[in-house]
Task: inverse folding
């Protein structure tokens, strides 16, 4: 089954404790992205990757890091989480050929206290 | 310029009604137009996509794109309670979705039984 998986699905942590949210896709997609979704603000892109070792900032990259060492994986790293990073996070992937529709993971609900 | 406008709702209609959801955009470079449906606590799932202007029909759903007016619509006929969800429009340019799609903030739709 074609899918994007994320782990963990739920995470409660404390300010400053480094964490990683994993993302994996099995569709051999070149493009991968991370979004956060907040009430009233919609989906906002954090980082994206066009291929292995190629990443770039999205609209809200501050406080986040990513890496793309393998085509299928695109982890999101919060080195020093803060309460304003409490949000619902989605990983997505898409082909490099049109129509570029994105396939989303199930989401990770992060709470930083 | 990344800007897509979408009425957040909520939009509440009785079961069986025709629903019209809309987005306007400002970037004339957008060529691919999509509608996603998102149930509570789930990731967005692709509902329909269209390329450039025109209509596309899939069962009870019809997507329309008017590039001259920079306006897209999603119509749902014979609406069902299971259609209750948040609907997000999304779009990308001809060059592809390397930096991801540009999303509207979503319209929360409620179908009353």
Result:
């Amino acid at each position: 089954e074609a899918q994007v998986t994320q782990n963990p699905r739920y995470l409660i942590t404390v300010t400053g404790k480094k964490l990683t949210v994993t993302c994996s896709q099995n569709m051999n997609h070149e493009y991968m992205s991370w979004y956060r979704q907040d009430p009233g603000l919609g989906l906002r892109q954090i980082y994206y990757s066009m291929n292995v070792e190629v990443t770039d900032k999205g609209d809200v990259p501050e406080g986040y890091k990513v890496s793309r060492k393998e085509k299928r994986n695109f982890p999101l790293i919060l080195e020093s989480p803060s309460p304003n990073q409490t949000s619902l996070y989605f990983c997505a992937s898409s082909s490099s050929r049109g129509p570029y529709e994105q396939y989303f993971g199930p989401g990770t609900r992060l709470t930083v206290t | 310029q990344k800007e897509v406008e979408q009425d957040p709702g909520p939009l509440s209609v009785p079961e069986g009604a025709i629903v019209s959801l809309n987005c306007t955009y400002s970037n004339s470079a957008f060529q691919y137009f999509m509608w996603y449906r998102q149930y509570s606590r789930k990731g967005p799932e692709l509902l329909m996509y269209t390329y450039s202007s025109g209509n596309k029909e899939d069962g009870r759903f019809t997507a329309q794109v008017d590039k001259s007016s920079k306006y897209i619509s999603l119509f749902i006929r014979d609406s069902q309670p299971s259609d209750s969800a948040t609907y997000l429009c999304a779009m990308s340019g001809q060059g592809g979705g390397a930096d991801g799609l540009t999303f509207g903030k979503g319209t929360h739709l409620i179908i009353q039984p």
About this structure: The CA atoms of residues 82 and 111 of chain B lie 8 Å apart. The two ends of chain B are 41 Å apart (CA to CA). Chain B touches chain A through 25 residues (CB under 8 Å).
